[in-house]
């Protein structure tokens, strides 16, 4: 295993710090396919960015030509290599720069790369070293432009990027829903001094103010007062200090509060006011704390005045002074709350340290126009937000020998909001925030850890002819278990911790080790079996009276939704009793509602579907058929990529063709374009209605959709249970988890059937 070591500034070469052993290939990943580098070098940290092409396996389904030959199988599953784009961002101390450049030089294969974009104050200082080590020309970019470009990029592409810091709350991080329109906003960048920038659009920003009193002032004055030269150590001192020993408070002057001016007794009347009159020595901790308050309050008041002057409610703070430190975030937050009386919140960014490097990279990649794509954080390759507990020593807080990683994958589809969200800016996909609900967090982390053996077993079984599948599955197990352990201690690592993020992290880790679709063979088998029963199921429905048929259709959808391999209670039944069938599932249901389809028909129904097999074929399709028969157009939205046993768009295309060959209602609806199949843009068992395929959004508008149906536990309970839509909606699922059923006040296999009509829009 190679090491990344610290440069010893007292020697001519570089030495390895043996206390820090790191596998560099896990930090600088996929370097052999890297191109387009950018670097942001600050006073103490270097941030490196590069673009790489990643080869990974994807499961593709392809229909057989049944007209020329009878095939045993429904469709062919081919695992193919696919190349996707990935952005890598690595943050490390400047002390490691030479060793890291050596490693990059030794592993850099792509000779097309001639230039490295650079920004930050250290870009000039290290220019000669970078050019000599990498053989690349350093092309310097404007620091502020890079910062703004990077900020825009993370706000647009990472849903839980911004947070409010609440030091004494149960959850110190409160992640914000990013408004789809991120502009305008105020960025307060606190480096050595302070720059206050108004950002109005992708390319329009203006420095509207600033101050020479910033992070450099805190560091410089702090060094003079305490003889402490390291910034982190100075903050550590401040976190232990009592500013009231040094500062003169309102009560020190007036004996209490100054009520007629609305000033409380504990308010600072004069920073360092006691030091002029008190005949005593002050502790380093108290002086550092007083200095921190003085500078934070000054910056906070400036930021508030500029926000009011320009009528801006979103104020983001970043720069060296912030850098995820709890003490600075707390004092800035307190200052903003005080000066705006709570009207403006101080917002911080999870990836604040990467903004310059991201911006410099984007400047160098303009010919590829990365902004025309949507990007998603790859949880498998990102280290997440570190713990910022004020009790933790700065050196303990550093992870992986001070290396920190962020990876972003380019998504095939451009993602946008569902146009039918009542208020996209206040939409929160997830029903429970596990960051704040400790009991739920403990249960779900335990649940996912307990399920890990089964997932590994399923992954190996999906690739029976590949000998090294077991070895890769074991690596997956280790990585995902490590992620779960990280989240147990740092639930805020990837934004709000939710059941969705736990599921998505698992999918990312499976893809990382080339298990693109562990349930592909199960899905194929269940689809094949369910298709054989389709005509019989439809015939029995057609024989019922209208009212009985409506009741039976809804019951059928819910019974179909029982067949979910992602639910432990169900997978255990299916594994122990492969003959467990549709009729048995109907008997298992605890309660089920009556008819939905009353009154005049809807224009168009958008149906977010869930599982393969019985669910989609015997549950959903008869419901779709009934909607079509009433004159309602139907748009079926299914996953773009695999997740558990959820049906994918490519699988659904083949299944619908096969059903159409048996069913004239479906056949004519397809031919007349009254039944449309679209990708959701998601590869998750859950559903984020703010990140959907742009084509789906276009179809929804064109068809004047007036009914949205969301099916399944992941899409309708773990997410979207409280989603407010501007048209009628139906959320339905079967509760297949005992703990969740108990929490909701029901039993296992209880039914959720939530039909909502927006105010003033009765159907």
Automatic annotation (TrEMBL):
Cofactor or coenzyme needed: Ni(2+); Mn(2+)
Protein's cellular compartments: Cytoplasm
Record-given protein name: 4'-phosphopantetheine phosphatase
Assembly information from the UniProt record: Homodimer. Interacts with PKM.
GO cellular component, one term: nucleus
GO molecular function: ATP binding; hydrolase activity; metal ion binding; pantothenate kinase activity
Alphabetical list of Gene3D superfamilies matching this protein: 3.30.420.40, 3.30.420.510, AF1104-like (1.20.1700.10), Uncharacterised protein PF01937, DUF89, domain 2 (1.10.285.20), Uncharacterised protein PF01937, DUF89, domain 3 (3.40.50.10880)
Domain Damage-control phosphatase ARMT1-like metal-binding: 449-747
Transmembrane segments: none
Ligase in keyword set: no
Keyword terms of this UniProt record: Acetylation, ATP-binding, Coenzyme A biosynthesis, Cytoplasm, Hydrolase, Manganese, Metal-binding, Nickel, Nitration, Nucleotide-binding, Phosphoprotein
Lineage, uppermost ranks: Eukaryota, Metazoa, Chordata, Craniata, Vertebrata
Annotated source species: Cyprinodon variegatus (Sheepshead minnow)
